Amino acid sequence: MRHNKKFNHLGRTASHRNAMLANMACSLIKHKRITTTVAKAKALKKFVEPLITKAKDDTTNSRRVVFSNLQDKYAVTELFKEISVKIADRPGGYTRIIKTGNRLGDNAEMCFIELVDYNENMAKEKVTKKATRTRRSKKAAAEAAPAVEAAAPVAETPAAEEAKAE
């Protein structure tokens, strides 16, 4: 029976799985987005999100705990210096999984996993929205342009007034 056995083993031994997840987490931290299979992405999400939460508190102990999981000092430095500053006010949900279809060779479900705050396209959509414009015909636009010019007379310079007087 498999009661309470929810962990996905990914067809690997424990040491291989831990090393693979640590390498994937380092790549995610360095590149902010990686492409992988859906099963590995879900396992990576469970692996990396507690580390990012731990990185919010920049103490020696939290650095040691994160380093013991990642084993890459450049990834740990990037996590504590850049990523933790950017996600400081976020209460969780630091990663996003977006499915991209199936792989050609073996038809495996593929996706990319990314850090939420580093996707500029998603951030721009929330921050700036285009002003809605009404559709007008060319005739209506041509009539509207002279009406604006006639409504606002241009103040003439004194030299232009003297030329008109002569």
Automatic annotation (TrEMBL):
<dbReference type="GO" id="GO:0003735">
    <property type="term" value="F:structural constituent of ribosome"/>
</dbReference>
<comment type="subunit">
    <text>Part of the 50S ribosomal subunit. Contacts protein L32.</text>
</comment>
<keyword id="KW-0687">Ribonucleoprotein</keyword>
<dbReference type="Pfam" id="PF01196">
    <property type="entry name" value="Ribosomal_L17"/>
</dbReference>
<feature type="region of interest" description="Disordered">
    <location>
        <begin position="127"/>
        <end position="166"/>
    </location>
</feature>
<keyword id="KW-0689">Ribosomal protein</keyword>
<feature type="compositionally biased region" description="Basic residues">
    <location>
        <begin position="129"/>
        <end position="139"/>
    </location>
</feature>
<comment type="similarity">
    <text>Belongs to the bacterial ribosomal protein bL17 family.</text>
</comment>
<dbReference type="InterPro" id="IPR047859">
    <property type="entry name" value="Ribosomal_bL17_CS"/>
</dbReference>
<dbReference type="GO" id="GO:0022625">
    <property type="term" value="C:cytosolic large ribosomal subunit"/>
</dbReference>
<protein>
    <recommendedName>
        <fullName>Large ribosomal subunit protein bL17</fullName>
    </recommendedName>
</protein>
<feature type="compositionally biased region" description="Low complexity">
    <location>
        <begin position="142"/>
        <end position="160"/>
    </location>
</feature>
<dbReference type="GO" id="GO:0006412">
    <property type="term" value="P:translation"/>
</dbReference>
<dbReference type="InterPro" id="IPR000456">
    <property type="entry name" value="Ribosomal_bL17"/>
</dbReference>
<dbReference type="InterPro" id="IPR036373">
    <property type="entry name" value="Ribosomal_bL17_sf"/>
</dbReference>
